[in-house]
Amino acid sequence: MYKLIAGALLGVAALPAQGAIVVVAAKANSITGGTSVVVGPVTAGQAITISSSTDDLWSAGPPYRISDANGLVGVRYATATDDSGQPVGTQIGDDYGLFTLNGLSAPFGSLVGRIGSSYQFLGANFNGTAWGTGNLELMYWDQFSDDNFGEITFNIGAVPEPTTWPPLP
Hints:
- By secondary structure, the chain is mainly beta.
- The protein has one helix at 2-13, and strands at residues 20-25, 37-42, 47-51, 58-59, 66-67, 76-77, 91-93, 98-101, 104-107, 110-115, 118-121, 125-129, 134-141, 149-158.
- It has one helix and 14 strands; from the N terminus they run H-E-E-E-E-E-E-E-E-E-E-E-E-E-E.
- The strands form four sheets. Strands 1, 3, 4, 5, 12 and 14 form a six-stranded antiparallel sheet that branches. A four-stranded antiparallel sheet has the order 2-13-10-11, with no helix packed on it. It has a two-stranded antiparallel sheet with strand order 6-7.
- The radius of gyration is 17 Å and the shape is globular.
């Protein structure tokens, strides 16, 4: 009976197959000064999708530290469709290289996930599998959160195991 109840509770809290929306803030959800956004439990090997618009931006502060969830990986200029608020053609981002913490080197200002004590770079659009079993947590990857601002909206999904698929009619 205990296993049945625990399994039912896990099923309710598990990653949805489609359409969950999660907002990750550069300051509130920073690895170095905030708290992670807990998405839900996953099982090692489970398929996961995380996506955002590369026009949805956040910042590690001035100057030239505005990026999408892929991080500060090169010179970036404002476009007519991004949410930087800057005139088209204005430099808003630069390459800040990799930031290393907790055994992971990932682009400064990117989206990173954690399951247990294991971290992985996710970026703006991740299509892959869970690298462990436990809660999937999301965070902004930087070394100083006091001047961070902005947030990015992510669509989160998980592909259910075939045993949970509804029967064919």
